[in-house]
From TrEMBL:
Domain WKF: 145-205
Coiled-coil zones: none
Domain of life the protein comes from: Eukaryota
Organism: Pundamilia nyererei
UniProt gene name: C7orf50
Family matches, as PANTHER family: CHROMOSOME 7 OPEN READING FRAME 50 (PTHR22306)
Region (Disordered): 1-104
InterPro entries: WKF
Name of the protein in question: Uncharacterized protein C7orf50 homolog
Compositional bias (Basic and acidic residues): 14-26
Basic residues biased stretches: 58-67
Length: 235
């Protein structure tokens, strides 16, 4: 019986927490406290970000609606007849809240539309802007008239460097200077002096040399024939 009493289980006593266990519990408490504080700090920032995002969406939506109104006004102006739509009436309706820059852009668009419509109207009536501009004589005609004035009306003739340069550049071209005019030009060249004379002779010599390499080319041979006459005159 004494043996049985000794074998009876004794109630376990709770062990006291050691120093290491106390530190662990304190650290867990501090971590939880910091986490709660961080969550509390992040909440306003998150709410602020949501607010900013909402504001940006509203601004973009307002900006888009303004742009749509401007485009709609421009489209309406395209349909209207420009003379029947005085300036400032189309863009005034519903656009009071536009900035000055937007209003200037709209005005420029409307002006372009009006000009385009006016051109279409003139074209439909058979009138073009190009026809109203007087077309002057070509450089070729002016040079030939210059040479004719030298030959027929010397008292009214005045030396013009530009006309002489054109004649020297196309001296050997029978399409630009016909044969009957070339004979008058030879008389004009008798008074040629200075670098203009030297350049003309060198060009004529080059054409004569080129003609020897292409005896069957009629255009080159025709130019070479004129070149020989010029060399004979100026040498």
């Amino acid at each position: 019986m004494a043996k049985d009493k000794s074998l009876k289980s004794k109630p376990l006593k709770r062990k006291d927490l050691g120093p290491s266990d106390d530190r662990t519990e304190i650290m867990d408490t501090e971590v939880n406290t910091k986490r709660k504080k961080m969550d509390a700090d992040e909440a306003p920032a998150h709410m602020s970000q949501l607010t900013n995002t909402t504001d940006d969406k509203k601004r973009k939506k307002n900006k888009k609606s303004k742009k749509e109104r401007v485009n709609q006004t421009v489209e309406q102006a395209e349909v209207l007849d420009p003379p029947s739509c005085p300036e400032g009436t189309a863009e005034a309706e519903g656009l009071e809240d536009l900035s000055p820059d937007k209003k200037r852009v709209l005005e420029r668009k409307l002006k372009k539309i009006r000009k385009k419509e006016e051109k279409k109207k003139l074209k439909a009536e058979g009138v073009t802007l190009e026809q109203t501009k007087p077309s002057g004589p070509s450089a070729q005609q002016q040079a030939l008239d210059y040479l004719t004035c030298w030959a027929e009306n010397r008292s009214r003739w005045k030396f013009q460097k530009t006309r002489q340069t054109w004649l020297l550049q196309h001296l050997f071209d029978s399409e630009k200077i016909p044969d009957d005019t070339f004979s008058v030009l030879l008389q004009y060249l008798e008074g040629l002096r200075g670098s203009g004379k030297d350049t003309t002779v060198q060009k004529a010599l080059s054409l004569v040399e080129e003609s020897g390499k292409a005896p069957e080319d009629t255009v080159i041979q025709q130019r070479a024939h004129r070149a020989r006459e010029v060399i004979q005159l100026l040498s």
